[in-house]
């Protein structure tokens, strides 16, 4: 017994794994930072509608988002409580969608421009009037592939 | 003293720390990759030239399935007020027209690759009209039911012909089935309730 103990004690310090957690933590922080950096800061409250036939969004790099919802409380003083559109990081008007789409499309690779998809991420209580306006704007900008963002409904 | 020190050093074992942080890392990796949004994919019809009136597409009345949602989120199908839960069944009946009902869309027989001659309602169109005041959730609910009707029909055909679910088929067979049940959900021009645009997918 004593012999075995001695052996163990001798080998342990040689195999120092104390730096391993640090490396893993670095990886962990890297992933945490990268994933949170990619998201936009929402300025509107979005509670997506529920649906059962949802598909997962593929090719994230080809998707551009249009957010629609009521401004968050801290922006309500300036922007009011009516439903607003958010493009990337700022509030926008329907008339600005076409320009946004054109800019985003020209920033993409040429062979990918036709594959651009616009994801409309709207609050479930939004009225269809504004969605119709957005759809018309997208049609005029030739952004015809659209996705209505929806969360999967838990099957009862 | 010496003995104590030795014991302390031996007890602070950092090897489990790596396991803990690995667990955290895997947790974050999984949760972030699961967080890719989801949604209903649709295709909009191309824009009309500004000086052109919407073309009068000649759609026979029997080929048209009109779904209207009003500002109170009530549903009207073919002039009848119905519940949302009945929409899928009605849509399936319409798209399939099993008994060749003269009120349901006309059946066309066509030869389709991998499937052979198929009789299906080639020219049917589902027209979805909504009010400005309709809520988005109600609109998505209706879209969802219509897509579900198509998905169920495709799945049924796949099961019947190939004994597999539609999602498990290869791309060519999926395309063949899509030809039999193409998603034809058109959305009216919002400012012009008469015009019907085909937004096929």
Description:
The complex is a heterodimer of chains A (156) and B (201). Chain A is built from 5 helices and 9 strands; from the N terminus they run H-H-E-E-E-E-H-E-E-H-E-H-E-E. Chain A has 156 residues and is an alpha/beta fold. In chain A, the strands form 2 sheets. In chain A, strands 1, 4, 5, 6, 7 and 8 form a 6-stranded mixed sheet that branches. In chain A, strands 2-9 form a two-stranded parallel ribbon. The radius of gyration of chain A is 24 Å and the shape is extended. Chain B has 5 helices and 8 strands. Chain B is an alpha/beta fold and 201 residues long. In chain B, strand 5 (108-112) and strand 6 form a beta hairpin. Chain B starts with a helix and ends in a 14-residue tail after the last strand. Chain B is extended. Chain B has a domain at 61-187. In chain B, helix 3 (84-96) crosses helix 4 (136-162). Helices cover 40% and strands 18% of the residues of chain B. Chain B has helices at residues 2-11, 15-34, 84-96, 136-162, 171-180; strands spanning 38-43, 64-69, 75-77, 80-82, 108-112, 116-120, 125-130, 185-187. Chains A and B meet through helix 2, strand 2, strand 3, strand 7 and helix 5 of A and helix 2, strand 1 and helix 4 of B.
């Amino acid at each position: 017994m004593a012999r075995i103990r001695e052996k163990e004690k001798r080998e342990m310090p040689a195999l120092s794994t104390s730096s391993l957690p640090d490396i893993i933590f670095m990886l962990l922080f890297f992933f945490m930072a990268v994933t949170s950096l990619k998201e936009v800061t929402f300025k509107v409250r979005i509670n997506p509608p529920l649906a059962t036939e949802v598909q997962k969004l593929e090719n994230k790099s080809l998707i551009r988002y249009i957010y629609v919802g009521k401004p968050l409380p801290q922006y309500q003083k300036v922007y009011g409580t009516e439903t607003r559109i958010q493009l990337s990081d700022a509030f926008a008007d329907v008339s600005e969608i076409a320009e946004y789409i054109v800019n985003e499309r020209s920033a993409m690779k040429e062979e990918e421009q036709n594959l651009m998809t616009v994801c409309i991420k709207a609050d479930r209580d939004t009225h269809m009037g504004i969605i119709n306006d957005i759809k018309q704007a997208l049609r005029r900008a030739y952004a015809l592939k659209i996705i209505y963002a929806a969360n999967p409904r838990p099957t009862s | 003293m010496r003995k104590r020190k030795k014991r302390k050093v031996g007890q602070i074992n950092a090897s489990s720390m790596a396991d803990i942080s690995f667990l955290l890392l895997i947790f974050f990796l999984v949760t972030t990759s699961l967080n890719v949004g989801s949604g209903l994919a649709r295709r909009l019809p191309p824009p009309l030239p500004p000086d052109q009136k919407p073309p009068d597409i000649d759609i026979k009345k029997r080929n048209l399935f009109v779904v209207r949602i009003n500002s109170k989120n009530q549903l009207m199908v073919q002039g009848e007020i119905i519940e949302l839960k009945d929409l899928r069944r009605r849509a399936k009946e319409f798209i399939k027209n099993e008994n060749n009902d003269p009120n349901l869309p006309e059946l066309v027989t066509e030869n389709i690759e991998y499937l052979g001659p198929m009789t299906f309602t080639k020219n049917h169109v589902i027209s979805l009209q909504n009010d400005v005041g309709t809520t988005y959730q109600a609109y998505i609910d209706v879209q969802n039911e219509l897509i579900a009707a198509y998905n169920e029909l495709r799945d049924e055909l796949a099961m019947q012909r190939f004994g597999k679910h539609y999602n498990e088929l290869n791309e060519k067979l999926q395309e063949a089935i899509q030809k039999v049940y193409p998603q034809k959900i058109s959305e009216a021009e919002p400012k012009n309730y008469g015009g019907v645009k085909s937004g096929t997918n």
